[in-house]
Every structure is written in structure tokens, then in C-alpha cells.
């Protein structure tokens, strides 16, 4: 299995940014944890981060021919980007949405996710471990889909 992990805007500042909200774990550490899990599970994982909506959309579109699934933390674009939502819907690749914080316990504008309706699931509020939880959930989903297709 080949999975694309996407980090949205401002996540490159993790560990330095609003520590009381996002904690002290850096994106580098999160990525190392993702890769450790991937090696253990024998997954191919490619990780990318961008502050640019269009770049994230392009990567999602390109994923169609290369990846079996996507784990994405769209960050602030969660609540604003119809373009990212539409790209995920267009490619039809199973996608898991991840958030470090529980977006439903935060400001009201964060309670709506454009991504949720086109994702197979959402992991929210478990901090950095949410990425590995999302990757594990996606892996199980893909395995189940393969088993069902083989029947």
C-alpha cells in the first residue's frame, strides 16, 4: 500500500506555534512517528506539507495514479476550502481527515469541515498521535476494501 500524508498551512510551525493549543511536538517529530509506523506495517508513505491551497489540490489530484489512500490535516483549510473538498471527491481515493485538536471544542467557525463529507473518517483531538491513528484506520479500511473486492 502506498499512502500520501498531507499537512496543511501553518503545520510547519508546530512546536513553536501556540503551544497551549497545539503542544510542543514538531512536524519533524510527527513525520518520524509516521515513518516509524509505516516501516513497522510495511507501508510506503510519502509526506508533504504546504501553506498553499492550490499546491495541496494539485497533490491530491496527482495522487489518483500513485497512491491507495490519503491522510490529510487540512488545518485552516478544513473550514474554508471547497477546492480541497472537491479534489478529494474527484479522485475518489479513500481519505482520512486528521486534526491535532478537537475542532468541535474550539471556536464555532472550526466546527464545520468541508472535508468530512468526502472522507472515510475523521480523527480529531488526539494530538500528534492522531496521524498514526489515521494511518492505521486508513490501512484497515483499505485492507477491508481489498478483502471485499476479492469475494
- Please count the helical segments: 5
Task: Give the termini distance in whole angstroms.
Answer: 19 Å
Shape: globular
Examine the secondary-structure arrangement and name the CATH architecture.
3-Layer(aba) Sandwich
CATH fold-level label: Rossmann fold
Task: Characterize the biggest β-sheet.
Answer: 5 strands, parallel
Q: Give the topology string: H per helix, E per strand.
A: EHHEHEHEEH
Task: Write out the strand line-up for the largest beta sheet, numbering strands in chain order.
Answer: 2-1-3-4-5
Q: Cα-atom Rg, whole angstroms?
A: 15 Å
Helix content: 40-55%
Low-pLDDT parts are none
Name of the CATH class: Alpha Beta
- Number of distinct beta strands: 5
Q: What is the assigned CATH homologous superfamily?
A: Dehydroquinase, class II
Which structural class best describes the helix and strand composition? alpha/beta
User: How many structural domains can be distinguished in the coordinates?
Assistant: 1
Report the portion of residues in β strands.
Answer: 15-25%
Mean pLDDT: 92
